[in-house]
Design a protein that fits this description.
The structure holds two protein chains of two kinds. By secondary structure, chain A is α/β, with parallel strands linked by helices. Chain A contains nine helices and ten strands. In chain A, a hairpin with a 2-residue loop joins strand 1 and strand 2. In chain A, helix 3 crosses helix 4, helix 4 crosses helix 5 and helix 5 packs parallel to helix 6. Chain A is globular and about 55 Å long. Chain B has a two-stranded antiparallel sheet with strand order 1-2. The longest helix of chain B is centred in the N-terminal third of the chain and has 35 residues. In chain B, strand 1 and strand 2 form a beta hairpin. Chain B contains nine helices and two strands, in the order H-H-H-H-E-E-H-H-H-H-H. Classes of the chains: A alpha/beta, B mainly alpha. At the A-B interface, helix 2 and helix 3 of A face helix 6 and helix 7 of B.
Chain lengths: 243, 237
């Protein structure tokens, strides 16, 4: 039984095909990294998994349950998401960002929610920032709160939508360290990212998506050292030139 | 032609301070009742205009357009004469005729709802869409997201617009003059229409203008404070 199974998923916006016949599966504790040029459908694919975007056809299974047969809020409780622009709740402190879901969705008592929030803030290295508001934190700190917020809901799967691409270069390291720790602890992660260092060190599988289709998929060594397709080679070459 | 300002006219206004004070009380009561009605109806109306659909949204939209497109004096006169408001008598001391007060509250309150609804709609729409998505992504329902994430931020952003609306409603309570409600302007007129007191028009009007100014100025400063107090730390609004 796979934790996540995506079968023949199609998605288009009007005339524009965004995803075409996408299929793959992830096991528990897998770290899947999706790479691909801008507009290749990476973010859309991620958003289809927690139904922020609905697919046109195909099927997606979480623990063998088709996600459209689940209540969407129940699905999202089990599938956490980390956003490119962090999207922290601007009117709440770092701690408040984490406790909101614990209180309102998981219905934990207040003390328990606060204790849990502080615990997760500690895990992302922000034990002393619980009372800070998002606008008082650096981008890297905000993103780590974003990760803690998603993690605290105790999800089966975490989605990362380009978590470091809105960050200044010197702030990326802290976020990647947290993601690497999570991978080592066995968190199942589906990541859209162009951080090739992270992909090499943490990914169990790398998928190259182009124009809504999976071009190539395999372990990072294989994709980076011996890609089967010229397109993969060209794209990864461009990326390593950039980073 | 008599001199414009006479000492005796100022003395006349001062000796009637209690009479004008009672009018001020009615003005304040009418402002509070109208703004409360406007808030209670306006904020849901703004939310419906953003999140609602179908007949409810179009109904809210149409009523808003009509209310914003009708002069306030027309509304107040219409409600006073056309609505079957029961005759509830007059409140002693402040001499406030209840059915005129209710008609004025409905007219000012409904119109204010139409404007407050627009203020709130704009505030909701100014909140980044990522806030709603982030709330939904941790499993909150749409209603929970609106209540815990969108609403607290939108209310903060609505305060400057609400401050304007407060000032407008306070000053527009004076149109209740048209239906004889004993608020500040009506009482002012009763003073200078007394036999031999037509020389005191300017003095009476200066005094009630000062009262209106003091009321708007002090409450606006108080609302400024409120805004600063609830501002989101580190934010630039």
């Amino acid at each position: 039984m796979s934790l996540l199974r995506i079968e023949n998923v199609d998605k288009s916006y009007g005339d524009e095909d965004v995803l075409h016949d996408v299929s793959f599966a992830m096991e528990t504790q897998d770290v899947e990294v999706i790479v691909g040029p801008s507009g290749s459908g990476k973010s859309t694919l991620l958003r289809c998994v927690n139904r922020l975007t609905e697919i046109d056809s195909g099927a997606i299974y979480l623990n063998d349950e088709e996600i459209h047969s689940l209540d969407e809020n129940e699905l999202r409780r089990r599938v956490g998401m980390v956003f490119q622009d962090f999207s922290l709740f601007a009117h709440l402190t770092a701690r408040g960002n984490i406790t909101l879901g614990l209180r309102e969705v998981l219905e934990l008592p207040k003390e328990e929610a606060v204790a849990k929030a502080d615990d997760y803030l500690d895990r992302v290295g922000l034990a002393d920032q619980g009372d800070s508001y998002p606008a008082e934190l650096s981008g890297g700190q905000q993103q780590r709160v974003g990760i803690a917020r998603a993690l605290a809901m105790d999800p089966d799967l975490l989605l990362f939508d380009e978590p470091t691409s809105a960050l200044d270069p010197e702030l990326i390291g802290d976020v990647l360290r947290v993601m690497n720790d999570l991978a080592e602890e066995g968190m199942t992660m589906l990541c859209v990212t162009h951080e090739m260092g992270f992909a090499r060190s943490a990914a169990s599988t790398v998928t190259f998506l182009d124009e809504g289709r999976i071009v190539e998929r395999g372990p990072p060594e294989q994709l980076f050292e011996n890609p089967e397709h010229d397109r993969t080679n060209a794209f990864l070459g461009e990326l390593s030139g950039l980073h | 032609m008599e001199p414009v300002a006479l000492l005796s006219d100022w003395q006349f206004v001062v000796s009637n301070w209690r009479f004008l004070l009672l009018g001020t009380v009615v003005t304040i009561l009418l402002t509070l009742s109208s703004l409360s009605l406007g808030f209670l109806l306006g904020f849901p109306a703004g939310a419906i205009e953003v999140y609602g659909d179908g007949w409810l949204k179009s109904a809210v939209n149409t009523v808003g357009v009509i209310l914003r497109g009708t002069p306030i004096v027309v509304l107040i006169v219409l409600f006073f004469f056309a609505l079957p408001i029961p005759r509830l008598g007059t409140v002693p001391v402040i001499d406030m005729q209840m059915n005129a007060f209710i008609a004025a509250t409905l007219a000012l309150g409904l119109r204010s709802a139409a404007y407050q609804g627009q203020v709130f709609r704009g505030s909701i729409q100014s909140i980044a869409s990522g806030q709603m998505e982030a709330a939904r992504s941790i499993g909150m329902t749409k209603l929970q997201a609106v209540r815990h994430v969108i609403f607290p931020q939108a209310v903060r952003r609505s305060l400057p617009g609400f401050q304007n609306e407060f000032t407008i409603v306070l000053k527009d309570t004076s149109v209740a003059f048209a239906i004889g409600l004993a608020e500040l302007l009506t009482r002012a007129e009763r003073l200078y229409l007394q036999p031999g007191r037509d020389t005191a028009v300017i003095e009476v009007i200066i005094v009630i203008s000062a009262i209106y100014f003091i009321l708007t100025f002090t409450t606006n400063r108080a609302l400024d404070r409120l805004q600063q107090r609830y501002a989101i730390p580190g934010g630039n609004e």
